[in-house]
Amino acid sequence: MKKSLLALGVLSAFVATAHAQSSVTLYGAIDEGLDYTSNIGGNRVYEMASGYAQGNSWGLKGSEDLGGGIKAVFQLENGFEVNNGKLNQGGREFGRQAYVGLSSETAGMLTMGRQYDSVVDYLGPLTANGNWAGYLFSHPYDNDNTDDTFRVDNAVKYTSIAYNGFQFGGLYGFSNSTGFSNNRAYSIGASYSNGPLALAAAFMNINRVGANTSGAVTTDDASFFATRERVFGAGINYTIASATLGFVYSNSNYSNPTGNAYLSSSTDLFPRASSLKFNNFEINGKYQFTPAFYVGAMYTYTLGKYDAASGDASPKWHQFGLMADYNLSTRTDVYVQGTYLKVVGGQSGTVLDDAFITGTQGSSSTSAQFVARVALRHKF
């Protein structure tokens, strides 16, 4: 009996120790609301829509202590549509993130799988859409991916530890094709945070974005389709008491663009175009009136350059966004948003001439579009 009790005690201690060295967390968010859009193809639209301020998701993440300051880590994150229960991200089971890797207390973290690029990781959090506002505040067509329209498949990613507020990282997404550069991606980024100040910069390059179903950014995941997508940008946020002010600049350059998945499945939206460029200048601000209530605002000026055999054009986008958010509890909040977009100088003869706010069902029949939203969000 004594031996049995001793064995049971040893086993219990072993299980408790093993449990303490490993952890798995279930988490998620559900964002559901009502939208009004002033013009989609000439008509007003009232709709129930989800996943705007924050994408609907549930996920599992965990780690196992391997000793010596090293851990095995993983994350699986699903994206879904609340209104009909369908999977998002092209119907993928874990379309938002899916990776496994190793983490070191001194050397950083190395992960492999479907992951966010460096623009999302470093530059995105300084924008309104990539931080507190979400979808409707994206730069036109989310041309710089700061709202993570797509993820990178077949990706190896390194993230450093923080050195007195400074952190950096990079990612490489394999083409998984006999053509080495046929839909591959790479990105680098860095950030610095010290008290009220936050700085970040990032660069990303994708060859033959959306060209196939096996590469880094696949056909059913891409926003623009082009022979090359190149994005770089930098930003700054500064907090003064209850107010946070920010400025972000990003440049997106698409070589030989053919289409955009937000607007159509067709790949002939930009006939004989050689390049499409966006220069985004964003000013944003957020004021925390109480711990439970804040108001945020954003203005983005985007200067475009469209080059095609049929002629060149320089459309410009003016976008204004306003949001108020109130926390009912630590995990549940309600919010209202409004976004207005105006296109001027649109003489490309393409869909670029009509206003389109990312997140709506389609383009306006004119150069202006307005969206208002009221929603409930719950995080777990």
Overview of this structure, please?
The chain is mostly beta strands. The protein has a domain at 45-55 and 115-150 and 164-379: Porin (Beta Barrel). It is built from 2 helices and 18 strands. It has helices at residues 2-21, 118-123; strands at 22-40, 43-50, 57-67, 70-79, 97-104, 108-115, 152-159, 166-173, 185-194, 197-209, 224-240, 243-255, 259-260, 273-290, 293-308, 316-327, 332-344, 368-379. It has a 16-stranded antiparallel beta barrel. A hairpin with a 4-residue loop joins strand 16 and strand 17 (332-344). The longest helix has 20 residues, at 2-21. The radius of gyration is 22 Å and the shape is globular. The model is unreliable at 1-20 (pLDDT under 50).
The CATH topology of the domain at 45-55 and 115-150 and 164-379:
Porin
> What is the count of DSSP helices, taking H or I runs of 4+ residues?
2
Q: What general outline do the C-alpha atoms trace?
A: globular
Compressed to H and E, one letter per element, the order equals HEEEEEEHEEEEEEEEEEEE
CATH architecture assignment of the domain at 45-55 and 115-150 and 164-379: Beta Barrel
Q: Mean pLDDT, nearest integer?
A: 93
| Cα-based radius of gyration, to the nearest Å | 22 Å
Distance between the termini: 46 Å
CATH class assignment of the domain at 45-55 and 115-150 and 164-379: Mainly Beta
Q: Biggest sheet, open or closed, and with what strands and sense?
A: 16 strands, antiparallel, barrel
Low-confidence stretches: 1-20
Portion in helices: under 10%
Biggest sheet: strand arrangement: 1-3-4-5-6-7-8-9-10-11-12-14-15-16-17-18
Relative strand content? over 45%
Strand count: 18
Structural class: mainly beta
